[in-house]
Amino acid sequence: MKDEFDFVIVGAGSAGCVLANRLTASGAHSVLLLEAGGSDRSIFIQMPTALSIPMNTEKYAWQFHTEPESGLDGREMHCPRGKVLGGSSSINGMVYVRGHARDFDEWAEQGAHGWDYAHCLPYFKKAESWAFGADDYRGGDGPLATNNGNNMKNPLYRAFIKAGVEAGYLETPDYNAFQQEGFGPMHMTIKDGVRWSTSNAYLRPALARPNLTVRTGVRVEKLILEGGRATGITYTQNGIVRGASSRREVILSAGPIGTPHIMQLSGIGPADTLKAAGIEVKHELPGVGENLQDHLEFYFQFKCRQPITLNGQLDWFHKGLIGARWFLTKKGLGATNHFESCGFIRSKPGIKWPDMQYHFLPAAIRYDGKSPFSGHGFQVHVGHNKPKSRGHVRARSANPCEAPGIRFNYLTHTDDVEGFRACVRLTREIINQPVFDSYRGEEIQPGTAVTSDGEIDAFVRQAVESAYHPSCSCKMGTDDMAVVDPEAKVHGLEGLRIVDSSVFPTITNGNLNAPTIMVAERVADLILGHTPLAPDNQPTFDEATYKTSQRPNTPTR
Fold first, then answer.
1. Residue spans of alpha helices (H) in 100-181
2. pLDDT tens track for 374-422
3. Taking the domains of the chain in order of start, what are their residue ranges?
4. What angle, 0 to 180 degrees and rounded to 10, lies between the N-to-C axes of helices 101-109 and 117-127?
5. Are 364 and 380 in contact (CB under 8 A)?
6. Which one, 235, 418, 434, 555, has the greatest CB density within 10 A?
7. Domain 2-528 - what CATH class?
8. For residue 365, is it left (φ>0), alpha (ψ between -120 and 50) or beta?
């Protein structure tokens, strides 16, 4: 069976849902949107506090694992990816971080021309509906609702911000605006107490359009290539092999694991990788699946001397009360991701913009929902966010049902190892500021005995987890390893674009949902031939003494 559409989009995730909405808005173009998963209507997806459930559920997420990581004592790391309408925006932590302005200037410097901060800012604003209204940096009427959840009602959130200031860092009222560097409230994609995924924000409003067709429960097998052009795809649904052809373009939005895998299954990629997998080389493109990057993080955990943490709410009775209140009112502890304060700092002198990120949580608990001890506690998630280690995604065979080999090569670069040493030492100093004296109990993890470089390195190798931010595996640029050009068109082929976080040249300093949505918004205009929004040259904070000082000496405006 074969259908024909103007555009075929593979993947209804953070980028695919944006494209489905924008490309069908005029009514002039027919669009087929394909998704491997199914409905996102589950309470465990829609209720923000239940975020750990869909991420660890086969029904809603590809449960990928890496190959043994040599830099992590041979551990195989969990790498879940969304397999549901909304993709990873339906299973993620809902944290809204655009990234630092210099991250995007770095993209442009590396060959992604037109993707500097001034060109990206208008599309961040276009996408967003900020709880406090539009200003020079924030959008006020876009599809994506952003706010601060429960507005830091637990006193530990504000204590964390004050501790950062007491330690000599800046306070920032809005890390997504003029000044990322510093400590302040954290933002999340939640609307009226409900997870505001791209499925809710973009796809659902477009579903009634007659020019949009959505098919779920499909597995894309490969692209159809004819004379140097992508003309469609083949996929299976309910055991039936189907085809879909595109009059204009096929757009891969299957994510940083799925997109390079589909490319390779189609014979597009590094010749050695394809030959080793028994796949005929149809278009050699050495960067497909290479340059893979991710963020790592670990939990710095302390016991709390006051019974004010979420650890007192983890029994089934209190969980039931939280769930019932959310179900009836969409309010309370069920209506937040609980990451309501944060920080961005530089790990050492000579770093121009922040390379460390903090998420503060008024509980001592793992992503799988398990408490590490009996009693009250709190933790801060910390990670070195500008890694230099590079990995890859590589097809193991021509069978689309076989997961690709994934290896990030975590902590194989000396700078990354040193970055995590700073994470331990600087975080310990922050939590030991006077504001925490009435709250801070025993250090649970890493433990006060972990102090030397060797002890810290050994702890980190065993304790770090993925922050679930894979990216950069089909990077944008003009060099020999670039996969797409600055319009997201695949080099050397017609009718094929990639629009997801795999096109990032380098990983941004923060969570990736916001910049992925921004990329989709901007590429949608390029696809439709619209004049891109004019660059917005808003000023941003840079520490003037960064070459000699790890902490800021420059006052903010």
1. 101-109, 117-127, 155-166
2. 789 999 999 999 999 999 999 999 999 999 999 999 999 999 999 999 9
3. 2-528
4. 130
5. no
6. 235
7. alpha beta
8. beta
Which are the catalytic amino acids?
469
Cα 81 to Cα 56, 290, 405: the distances in Å are 10, 18, 14
Concatenating the DSSP letter of every residue in 162-173 gives HHHHHTTPPB-S
- DSSP letters for 438-470: TTEEEEEES-TT--SHHHHHHHHHHH-EE-S--
- Pick left, alpha or beta for residue 440 (phi over 0 → left; psi -120 to 50 → alpha; otherwise beta): beta
Please provide the size of the chain in residues.
Answer: 557
Report CA 133 to chain centroid distance, whole Å.
24
pTM above threshold 0.90: yes
CA distance 504 to 473: 8
Of 513, 507, 474, which is closest to residue 387 (Cα–Cα)?
507
Q: Using CB atoms within 10 Å of the CB of residue 18, give its burial: 0 to 12 exposed, 13 to 18 middle, 19+ buried.
A: buried
Quickly tell me which residue has 């932590």 as its tokens.
Answer: 93
pLDDT tens digits for 193-229? 999 999 999 999 999 999 999 999 999 999 999 999 9
Nearest residue to 163 (alpha-carbon basis) of 338, 300, 351: 300
Distance, CA of 363 to CA of 462 (rounded, Å)? 21
Directed axis angle between helix 513-528 and helix 117-127, to 10°? 100
Could you report the average pLDDT of every consecutive run of 10 residues in the chain (557 residues)?
A: 88 98 98 98 96 94 98 98 98 98 98 98 98 97 94 96 98 97 98 97 98 97 96 95 96 98 98 98 98 97 94 87 94 94 98 97 78 84 98 98 98 98 98 98 95 98 97 98 98 98 98 98 98 96 95 83
